[in-house]
From TrEMBL:
It comes from the Bacteria. S-adenosyl-L-methionine binds at N27, L29, G54, E76, D102, N121. It comes from Roseovarius aestuarii. The keyword Thylakoid does not apply. This is Ribosomal RNA small subunit methyltransferase A. Keywords: Cytoplasm, Methyltransferase, RNA-binding, rRNA processing, S-adenosyl-L-methionine, Transferase. It is found in: Cytoplasm.
Length: 278
């Protein structure tokens, strides 16, 4: 059997009794045109290994293989999905490896050969945690070239947010420091089975060669976390506990002590992180 001859996803779900489970964040994509479109947003896959988290019944997996991925490593926690995924592996000999594991516990690197791209319709309950992990590796450059990930629309907005917007905060700064991030697709709830309560969006993140501005990662993270913990306060108050001369350090970083975190650019936060190390 080849990929085109595989049964429609509705049939796969019925045959394998894959009633969606909320606890596993299961909102499936059953339209193969749509999953192929998402796979195309991930870029040229022909020379890449692709890491997919949560393949479920395999709609996006089929899209990634059909779009020419060299290899796909699919990590799925729900054992009920494995027979359906094995069927896909048989239709794409040597190109799909399925691992039954919790993505939060597994080190995928042992299974992958660079260059690596990540593409996933993520379970919403662990999406942000996985993204933060992929953005804060122990070393740089990261193991991946790009991430093409489905999020709730509201989370996607937080990833790409600019200063001055409500969505701007830790996630935007983290992503912006090391990546180019943009929303490449918007999806209404009806695109999924069952439909979630909220709209979704696909975010494509490309890794930069190095961080956009110099800063120590841990110091930057700490400063940003403190600043946004009290996002309505002026920074001289929000960061008061960090150093007795915090106002001088803010000024040296080009930030007005009366500014609030949500108006401060990434470049200035990086300058402040450097000031905190003096
Ligand atoms: N990719 C499929 C699709 O687009 O139709 C399914 C997406 S569904 C939103 C999320 C998938 O992630 C489910 O198949 C679920 O079982 C799986 N999942 C949930 N938690 C997981 C975890 N910790 N590790 C690996 N997979 C997980």
């Amino acid at each position: 059997m080849n990929l085109n001859a595989l049964p429609p996803l509705r049939q796969v779900i019925a045959e394998h009794d894959l009633a969606a489970r909320k606890s596993l964040g299961q909102n499936f994509l059953l339209d193969l045109n749509l999953t192929a479109k998402i796979a195309r947003q991930a870029g040229d896959l022909s020379q890449c290994d692709v890491l997919e988290i949560g393949p479920g019944p395999g709609g996006l997996t089929r899209g990634l293989l059909a779009e020419g991925a060299r290899r796909v490593l699919a990590v799925e926690k729900d054992t009920r999905c494995l027979p359906a995924l094995e069927q896909i592996a048989e239709a794409a000999p040597g190109r799909l490896q399925v691992i039954n594991a919790d993505a939060l516990e597994l080190d995928p690197l042992t299974y992958l050969t660079p260059p690596i791209r990540v593409a996933a319709n993520l379970p919403y309950n662990i999406g942000t945690e996985l993204l933060v992990r992929w953005l804060t590796p122990p070393q740089w450059p990261p193991f991946w070239q790009s991430l093409t990930l489905m999020f709730q629309r509201e989370v996607a907005e937080r990833i790409i947010a600019r200063p001055g917007s409500k969505a701007y905060g830790r996630l935007a700064l983290l992503a912006g420091w090391r990546c180019e991030a943009r929303i490449v697709m918007n999806l209404p709830p009806e695109a999924f089975t069952p439909p979630p309560k909220v709209s979704s969006a696909v975010v494509h993140l490309t890794a930069l060669q190095g961080p956009r501005y110099p800063a120590d990662a841990k110091t930057l993270e700490m400063v940003v976390a403190r600043a946004f913990n009290q996002r309505r306060k002026m920074l001289r108050a929000a960061l008061k506990g960090l150093a007795p001369d915090i106002e001088d350090r803010l000024i040296a970083a080009g930030i007005k002590p009366t500014d609030r975190a949500e108006t401060v650019e990434l470049e200035q936060f990086c300058a402040l992180a450097r000031q905190m190390q003096n």
